[in-house]
Amino acid sequence: MTPTLQLFLIISAALFCVGLLAALSRRHAIFILIGIEIMLAAAGLNFIAFWRFAPPPHQPTGVMVAIFAIAIAAAEAAVGLALVIAVYRNYRTTNVDELDQLKG
Amino acid sequence: MAYLITLLIIVPLLGALFVASARGNAARGVALFFNLLTATIALVLWRDFDTTAAGMQFVQRHVWIPSIGAEYLVGIDGLSLLLVLLTSLIFPFALFAQRMDRGFCALMLIMQSALYGTFTAQNFILWFLFYEMSLIPAFLLIKIWGGENRDRAATKFFLYTFLGSVAMLLSFLGIYFVRGTFDFAELANAGKTGLLHGNIAWFAFAGIFIGLAVKVPLFPFHTWLPDAYENAPTGAAMVLTGVLSKMGVYGFIRLLLPLFPNEIRIVGPWLLALAVCSIVFASLAAWAQSDLKRMVAYLSINHLGYCMLGLFAITTTSAASTIDTHAALSGVFMQIFNHGVTAAALFYYVGLLEERRGLRGINNFGGLMQRAPLLCGWMSVAIFSSLGLPGLNGFIGEFLIFKGSFAVAASFTAIAVLGLLFTAIVFMRMMQSLFSGPLAESCGAFPDLLMSEKLVIVPITLLMFAIGIVPQFIFNIFNSTVVQMARLFA
Amino acid sequence: MMHWIAGNVWLIPAVPFAASLLILFVTGPNRKPAASLAIAGQVAAFALSIAAFVATLQTPGFRAFHNFTWFTFGTQSLRIGFVLDPLAAAMFVMITLVGLCIFVFSIGYMRADKNFTRFFAYLSFFTAAMLGVVIANSLLLLFVCWELVGLASYLLIGFWIERPSAAAAAKKAFITTRIGDLGFFIGILWLYGKSGTLLFYDGGRGCIENAALVSLGASATFIALLIFCGAVGKSGQFPLHVWLPDAMEGPTPVSALIHAATMVAAGVFLLARVYPLFSFGAINGVTPSLTVVVSIGVITAVMAALIALAQFDIKRILAYSTVSQLGLMMVSLGVGGVAAGIMHLIAHGFFKALLFLGAGSVIHGLHHEQDIRKMGGLRFAMPITFIAYAVGLMNLSGVPFFFSGGWTKEEILRNTAHWHASQVPHYLMLAGVILTALYMTRQFIYVFLGSRHLASVQAHESPKVMTRPLIVLAACSILLVAVLTPAWPWFHNYLNGERARFNIGLLIQPMIFISLALVAAGFAIGWFVYRNVDEIDPLEHAQPWLFRLLENKFWLDELYDHTVLALARTAARFADWMDRYVWDGFVRLAGGLGQLFGIFTKGFDENAINAGGDELTNRTRGFGRVMSARHSGQIQTYLGVIAIGMLALLLIYAWLT
User: Taking residues C50-76, what's their average pLDDT?
Assistant: First the structure.
């Protein structure tokens, strides 16, 4: 079976769905963060896939975006974890159901 | 010397500023000082006035707002001079009547300035400005320093006269759109051939008539007057009756009669009937009053009714002979001056009585002759002057008015003579219950005239005698104006 | 001298007037200088009057006038002036002489009064005003002085001002006479309008000279009647006589002055002065206006004489006798006897002053008792007063030969007999003679004869200062006879501007016997009826109802009170009511309508305009509230919504492509 763009896109969509489900269904903030990271990974996979299967000449755009996304994901994870810890310190919980201070 | 009139208008305004910044107990002195200045200016005007010349003198004319025909145009003829002199006479008299704070004195001076302006302005816009300007101090004087119903009376006075003014203003706008000028002299010349034509003439006539009739006041537009005079403080009441009420008569002579001669001829009998009603009903109503101020107020309406009778009688027909026209006009001018002096004096005396007793009902006094013979004696002079006793000033004007109007409107005049009888009854009743009979207990400590009061009363009383016995010096002021106006009305 | 006084006749009223002013303003409360000034003024006026009188003797029908401009109005001038003619001169002498007697009498009578000086000032003013009426050569100047006479009478009648009745009487006098003056005033206006002048004599252009009368035409009758209204008021003629008896509230010298010399004489004088207006166009001496004058005079004379029969106040009886005599004078003028009327006026001036001062002396002697029922027997206590009063009584009753009143009355009766219009006035006047004798007898018996009653026990004769004037007046009223008799009718001819001739044969006229018989009858009846009077009047005893009617003056006061006055008072209340509720009602209605409109616009503002804006904001806020409720703060809900949104976008995208 030759790797086609279709295949990559399906894998990427699946991966995105997994991440989304994780972000929506888990109650623990860290799991939600993990879900988000998975969705980011799915997006990065898309970029790489489109770059790989794009007609020549190949510009390094897709790779660059993917690298950026990874870097940002790392930074985001760091910020996100810091936020979670800060929230935990304030509310003594990381259960997002109980964290509803943002409501209007 | 043309600036004299402007000076006359400005000096009281300056005075008001000074008074407002003076210390409380010095206010009256400052106000009187400025009245001394205006009196001097008025006397200079009188001295330099050419009594033989017809037409306006001391005319000063400046462009003001050309786009609406407004000019600064002031000047005096005999009638204006007479009224300027009257104003200069009554204001100091009124200021002497009561010791008042600086607000009162300042407002009086503003009103004085407005009155000088009204009597000298010869352009409608300017005239109207001053005419309305007098209203506000009068309103405030009643509203702030008035008697118990002052709020109601002041509001009624203001709204009623203001409404009349609005009607007059609208009429003049109508005239301006047709004629394009606000100049009194030009309008009066145009009046002879019919100022306006068609329905608009009647609307304009009615507007001006109502505005002035309220001011005079003419029956049945008079009901604001007893309330206002009753509640006004003595000084303000003296000015209201002495000078302010003359604005209406002046307006009739200067505006309505020259501008609408044809309309007046058509409604003349009705106007005469209104004047007669003023005379008869007001004097009857005075009979039924028990409040002295109200009583004098009603008699004021009655006396101004004589003026209206004379004016309407000679303008209601073109057939009035020269002697009758001259008699009636001279009589009206004389009556304007005499009523100013006499009615102000009567209010002054009522003020004295009220000050001493605290009340002013006709039944609150009794037997004053025994306690205060001087007060009663001098007050009787004013009373007899007001009821038209020959030898005092009131008679001259009334006789000439009746003489002039009898030839033209005999039946109206014959009914109006009843007013003389009712006035006599009112005053006799007043004197009976005030002066005679046993001394009322409440008047036991009634002081007689003080020296300061005598100083005010004696000159005024002497003036009454002087006009009553040798009236020529007053006639000289306006004789040529009478001749000129008679020609205008003929 | 003669010409000087003719040109300066104004001095005659000016002197007492100046005296009056001096007393009021200079002498202050000092009694002696006040009285001296007043009397000096009166003496000076009397001297000037004599000079003026002498001046008029130069030629029969002497007339000097001096006109000048009072003031100029417009191009016209109003002229007034003075005149000196026999009519004026005779009045001058009478007024100043009688006035002088009254002034002197007053010194005694008013001795104890605290306002002594003011009294003399007023008295001087009163005579000055009356003299002004007499000198006037202009109806206007006459009216001016006429009103001043009214003022003076007001001041003097109400002199005892602390008495409410005096104040009421003064008011009544002023207002009643003013009612007549209204007619007079209209008459002046009419005359002025028609003739263009108010001067009596102006070298042929005066208003009572022929040219003006012709131009008046038929209106002369109306003008004359209007002027007569003034005379009716001042001279106390029916129906305006009601003030005169009430005027007795004043001090007795004032009553004497009013009834003899000043006030009431003014009306008769006025008629004599403007007589050409009345007689113009007369046929046989009868004109409509003169007929009215006669009718009013007759009614007044008879009515007043009847009323006098039933009064108990000594002064009131005299007051009604004055009213009656004035009626007689009016009749005389009306039937054409101007000279007779004026002669009676002059004679009456003397003897009525005498009677009033006699009454004053009695009242003074009895310590201000005025009820004749409490008097009696005073002939011994007050002999001088008694004799003087008797002389006055003879004069008033018209006893001929020695008393001036008899001769003048006789001449009036002769005139009425020759009146062409009717004989009724003549017979009524004859009845009046009996009535006069009757009521005077009654009074005389009550006061001086009979026995002493309550108040008269301690009576004493008055001091000389009061009795001397009585003697002078009595002497005058007798001496005057010399110029009144038909044998030498000097006075008559003097007034008419003719020379008198002496003819003794004319002395006794048939009328004098009739007159004598009537007076004698009156005295006899009087003596018979009243000789034994006591508390109850014989007439009251015999005819209580009639007596009640007369005592209450035909209830005229009450009638006026309930008709004219009540009507006027109602009119006054009505005018006030109209003002408060109808005319002011319209104003308030207009104000109310304005307020109503204000309330309406306020309601529209609040309920339509304001409420609309409010609703809009409320709805917006409600929507916001609904929306904000959706924001639960649950991150996962938001995330889910984002996911669903994305899915929806994808689906739309897919559907669109």
Answer: 86
Whether residues C148 and B281 touch (CB distance < 8 A) is answered with: no
Helix (H, G, I), strand (E, B) or coil at C77: strand
CA dist C98 and C100 (Å) reads 5
Share of chain B above pLDDT 70, in %: 100
Query: B317, B408 in Cβ contact below 8 A?
Result: yes
**pLDDT, tens only, C412-432:** 888 888 888 888 888 888 888
Contact call for residues C254 and C384 (beta carbons, < 8 A): no
- Alpha carbons B112 and C615: distance in angstroms, whole number: 54
* Mean pLDDT (whole number) for C522-540: 78
**Which 3 state secondary structure label does DSSP give C610?**
helix
- Over A44-70, what HEC string results? HHHHHHHHHHCCCCCCCHHHHHHHHHH
C619: pLDDT confidence band, cut at 50, 70 and 90?
Answer: very high
Tell me how close the Cα of A53 comes to any Cα of chain C, in angstroms: 23
Whether the CB of A36 is below 8 Å from some CB of chain C: the reply is no
Q: Mean pLDDT over residues B102-121, rounded? A: 91
Q: Going by C-beta distance under 8 Å and a sequence separation of 6 or more, which residues neighbour residue C161?
A: B367, B369, B370, B435, B436, B437, C167
What are the Cα distances from residue C522, in Å, to A27, C331, C437, C479? 147, 21, 5, 25
DSSP secondary structure letters along C396-458: HHT-TTT-HHHHHHHHHHHHHHT-SS-SHHHHHHHHHHHHHHHHHHHHHHHHTSS---GGGGG
DSSP state of C286: B
pLDDT digits over C202-222, tens only?
A: 888 888 888 888 888 888 889
Give CA B290 to chain center in angstroms: 24
pLDDT of residue A103: 64
Inspect the interface and report whether the beta carbons of C193 and B407 lie closer than 8 Å. Answer: yes
The mean per-residue pLDDT over the stretch C359-383 comes to: 80
- Residue C656: Cβ-neighbour burial (10 angstroms; 0-12, 13-18, 19+): exposed
What is the C-alpha R_g of chain C?
39
Note whether A103 contacts C640, CB cutoff 8 Å: no
Whole-number pLDDT of residue B116? 93
Each residue of B268-290: pLDDT tens digit?
A: 899 999 999 999 999 999 998 88
Q: Is B77 left (phi over 0), alpha (psi -120 to 50) or beta?
A: beta
CB pairs under 8 A between B and C: 157
